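fyi for ur records
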Amino acid sequence: AKLAVLGAAQRAEAFRWRAALTGVSELPPRATVCTRELDATPLGMLVGRIFTKEKPVSRARVSALITDIFSAFNASLDTLDWIDARTRELSRGKLALVTRNLVGPTVYDSLEQYEEAAAGYYESMAALDAFVQQRELAKIGTATDRNEWFMVPQLVNAYYSPELNSINFPSGILRGTFYADDYPPAVNYGAIGVVMGHELTHGFDDQGSNYDGSGALVKGWWSDEQRAAFDARTRCLKDYYSTFVPRQLGPDGPHVNGNLTAGENIADLGGLKSAYHAYRAFKEANPDAEPEALIGELFGGLTGEQVFFLSFSQTWCSIATDDAIRRQLQGDPHSPSEFRVQGPQSQFAAFADAFHCKAGARYNPEQRCKIW
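which gave:
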């Protein structure tokens, strides 16, 4: 990305390298390039401030939805037979301390002291980088801000920070196929709800589970016995995902690396479960909010549960070249999109129940891995 500030020749060379890796055949429009570059600087936050004002999202409704996800995860702790009472309470304590940052910052950093270089684009970006670096260095020795954002509000993404024990959902992902205030609950819980559950579960995956509720990396936070029990269940999921071969690469193609993708796979499965149970709890508490007859009319006779799973699956619709898939398998901690659908849904009995899958079918295996 930094090559872009050097000029057209450097941007073209960077694109040639990217095209060889991903199969992308055309340079994006200049406006798109400029927008991406802007978003990668502190100026992107100022754009995000405008974006959140001009394209508002109901914080109250999003907050209520994520509260349902947290409640479902909390309730699920009582159903796990592998954790002892101490670990269950430690997990609940950490869950209660997770900071929820939604839509965008409530306070934005000021750029009043920044003086733009007059010489050109490269000089301006270099001066901006230097300004930001000094601002960050000035934070040394100050109190940790758990509400700090490391992602611009207009981005379609989300993240969990183990060091801050915070979960962040920018305005950009709280729209489109993921969420809308007027979508049926089945659609919202199946799309953004699963993303919320996914990010929350990262706090308890193979890496996040090593951090306590304050964000400290604590050796012995869990007992050796509990860590061994967790690792055994994680091994089940690693082995399962390692059997996957992307269909477009043929039956003899490379496999998914279950070790490399373990954290994301754990989060995918945990997120799907938490969102589904949150959806069921919402329906039970609000029986008139989503009448089955209306859902059937809107979605061709499908049930609310079926719409939930289809909404989740739709978020992973994608097209990728063979080379891009191979490169992903080599170094990306995320499984290819098809297995982000098949993996968690095949490991969750509720999916097979909703669609009446035959025993032993791809989405209804005889044995399943259960972690969270």
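The first helix runs from residue 8 to 22. thats all i got for now
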